[in-house]
Amino acid sequence: MPATTALRRAFAALAALPLLTLAACGYGSQAEDDGNAEVAAGAKRIDGLDSVKIGYFGNLTHGTALVGVRKGFFQKQLGATRAEYATFNAGPSEIEALNSGSIDIGWIGPSPAINGYTKSNGTNLRIIGGSASGGVKLVVDPDKIESLEDVKGKKIATPQLGNTQDVALLNWIVERGWKVDPQSGKGDVTVVRSDNKVTPDAFRAGSIDGAWVPEPTASKLVAEGGKVLLDESALWPDGEFVITNIIVRQEFLKEHPKAVEAVLRASVETNRWINAHPDEAKAAANKQLEKDSGKALPAEVLDPAWKSIRFTDDPLAATLDTEAEHAVKAGLLEKPDLKGIYDLTILNKVLKAEGESTVDDAGLGAE
Question: Low-confidence residues of the chain, pLDDT below 70?
Fold first, then answer.
């Protein structure tokens, strides 16, 4: 199959997926505030807005959003403008929600952000801040896989075609000299696209031999008897790579910069609080996960998962550019023009006001 045909089919699958999975992904489901998130007496609306709609995933790698919601940091900064929340399980569905105006700002992985930006020819979103690094592991059945070489010929799950972990696994396979069709997942390694919610069941049943997944799914697999064969951070210089960014609709950024600034102030405040109070932050994130999904994580899953994630305001822009190169190498993306994907102007204004170091867009900023 020609590479261009494969690429078109891969993007077609990505585009169609949100329509097939809206009910399952939590599209539009409302996260709950705790008591700290009430609007303060005498607070004023920002930019004349009744509300700002914020999206995020029920993953610990979206811990900034989970803690910010739970502890009321977003609502505090937004004043009388109501913070409204929607939870997602898949990047394409969050991008669709952003495009439709169902959300204004979202926490999301780098690959969906890249895909959303390139598919719209750079017109729909901007990355306006960082959130997290790390928290991704290759976990395997130790009875079937003892070494990295043993991965060849096995079935390895990723959350979704073209998502951040899918790209990482495909790139890793290519770098080892093995071959796999990026769309079907068939080849020297069979790549199985499996929702994070069902991956532990598939692992327990033996229908997959391992998975390249974010936290807390990785630690759930370890609790089921899996072994961490590779922590993705070991593949990156200094062990850092972007796993979660903050994106915004370009129209919203242009029309409501004060609201965007309020959300970014809340994000910076949340990350500072997380890093100063790791145990309390871990508990707050778990409480929000329980509210959003109906089930808290047990300590044997929560504790190792939380330790593997670093929360940061830096979007680690150079690593996003590298992740785009990985998608090209894996055959999922033509070489993209990412110039303009970042606008870190407001974030750097907030950081400077807080006495923090400003962050860099790696030459990919908007003019």
Answer: 1-42
Is 19 exposed, middle or buried, given 0-12, 13-18 or 19+ CB atoms closer than 10 A?
exposed
In angstroms, rounded to a whole number, what is the distance separating the alpha carbons of residues 328 and 353?
Answer: 38
Q: What pLDDT, in 10s, does the model give residues 8-23?
A: 444 444 443 333 333 3
Q: N- to C-terminal Cα distance for the chain?
A: 39
Task: Provide the β-strand partners of residue 227.
Answer: 140
Distance CA 211, CA 193 (A): 10
Residue 2 pLDDT: 43
Which strand ranges, in their side-by-side order, compose the sheet holding 51-57?
Answer: 82-88, 51-57, 105-108, 242-249, 125-134, 309-311
Asked, as a colleague might, if the bond just before 216 is cis with ω within 30 of 0, I would say yes
Angle between helices 110-119 and 317-330 (to 10 degrees): 70
Sign of the Cα torsion 85, 91, 96, 100 reads positive
Q: Is the pTM of this model over 0.90?
A: no
> CA distances (Å), 308 to each of 59, 62, 232, 258, 279, in order?
13, 13, 10, 33, 14
Is residue 88 within 8 A of residue 26, CB to CB? The reply is yes
Contacts of 254 (CB under 8 A, 6+ apart): none
